[in-house]
Amino acid sequence: MGEWRYWFAAQRGTLLAIAIFVVMFLIYILNHPAGFTPNVVQTASNKAVLLAFVAMAQTLVVITAGIDLSIGMIFLLTNCLASWLVLGTPTETAFGVVVVLCAGLLCGALNGAIVIYGRLQPIVATIATGAIFYGLALLLRPFPGGSVNEDLADFMTGKFFGVIPASAVVLAAVVLVVWVPFSRSTLGRGAYAAGSSDVAAYMSGVPIRRSKFLAYSLAGLLASIGGLFLTFFTYTGEAAFASGNAYTLFSIAAVVLGGVSLFGGKGSAIGAIFGALAFRTIGDLLFVFDFDPLWQPLFQGVILLIAVSLGAFALFRVRNRLEWFL
User: Fold this and answer.
1) Which domains does the chain have, with CATH numbers?
2) Residue 126 φ then ψ, to 5°
3) Helices 241-257 and 71-85, interaxial angle, to 10°?
């Protein structure tokens, strides 16, 4: 019984995010003119998966007690890069995908190196690198354009067996291949320990630097997967500054909605994914209830404010920092 109670306490944020998403999605489906159909689910999945990948990326950094304000710009940069490289023959397309993923990984590694070895605050370092990444994206695509391998794009945004959204399958596969091994590895546990207390982790012999570096690097990789999917959905690349900033802010909201502590050391990427899905469902609900689309930024801003406020308010309910991680 004690083990179940501990598990529930550890997963409370994730379970709450799942519950919020399920309720919101049920309301959306019950009020949608087409009802619960594979096409409706596919459309919802394709819209939500972009933020889900970026939220996963943000989670890896947040659990180390950092924050990555360049995530949205890595997302844009890899989108622009993919619009140049992910086309042509199957071999050329595969090479382009590898280059795009490596570019995201290198961007994340650069962030990690600056934060760890340059000893800069994450918020300062990632603001600076975000500007660099956006500048590179703008050099690649000063105007919207480019293309992508249409066969691959259609496959990745279509349905398996005519029912299951391919984007949701890829998201689940990334969770299994990236998040699960990371969270259960020594370096993954080190990232959590570093987020809880750098000093205590260091005194316990935890490889803090390697753990943080891996977290930042994988964050860049996940953001690049999101950038790839943006290219698959739009068939083009665009260095839209407002879009990059929006995804960065929305990823923070999704992380908090998913039960990840902004103070580090607590939370799960799975919770952040469902936080992202719930956040994206807001726009869908406005659609089915026939609200003016101009209201969407207002509602999203309110949700962002509430989410971040709740995350900060929770800290005032504990008597000392140790209780926050128990």
Assistant:
1) 15-27+44-324 (1.10.3470)
2) -80, -25
3) 130
Residues, the chain? 326
Is 224's pLDDT higher than 70?
yes
Which of the four pLDDT bands, split at 50, 70 and 90, describes residue 325? Answer: very low
Q: Which residues contact 164 (CB under 8 A, 6 or more apart)?
A: none
The answer to whether the beta carbons of residues 171 and 49 sit under 8 Å apart is: yes
Q: What is the pLDDT of residues 48-100, one digit of tens each?
A: 899 999 999 999 999 998 999 999 999 999 999 999 999 989 999 999 999 99
Q: Of all residues in the chain, what percent carry a pLDDT higher than 90?
A: 51
What pLDDT digit, counting tens, does each position of 37-50 carry? 888 888 888 888 99
For residue 169, CA distances in Å to 43, 47, 293 come to 14, 14, 29
Go through 231-265 and write b for each residue having 16 or more CB atoms within 10 A of its CB, e for each that does not: bbbeebbbbbeeebbebbbbbbbbbbbbbbbbbbb
Closest CA to 40 of 50, 25, 60, 23: 25
* Structure-block tokens of residue 124: 């300062």
Query: What one-character DSSP code corresponds to residue 145?
Result: B
Tokens standing for residue 271: 């919770």
pLDDT 10s digits, 244-256: 998 998 898 889 8
**What is the Cα–Cα distance from 112 to 162, expressed in whole angstroms?**
41
Quick one: tokens of 208?
A: 């803090």
Query: Do residues 26 and 226 touch, judged by C-beta distance below 8 A?
Result: no
| Exposed / middle / buried, residue 207 (Cβ in 10 Å: 0-12, 13-18, 19+) | middle
pTM exceeding the 0.85 threshold for the entire prediction: yes
Distance separating alpha carbons of residues 224 and 210, to the nearest angstrom: 21
What's the rounded Cα separation, in Å, for the pair 210 and 232?
A: 33
Helix (H, G, I), strand (E, B) or coil at 164: strand
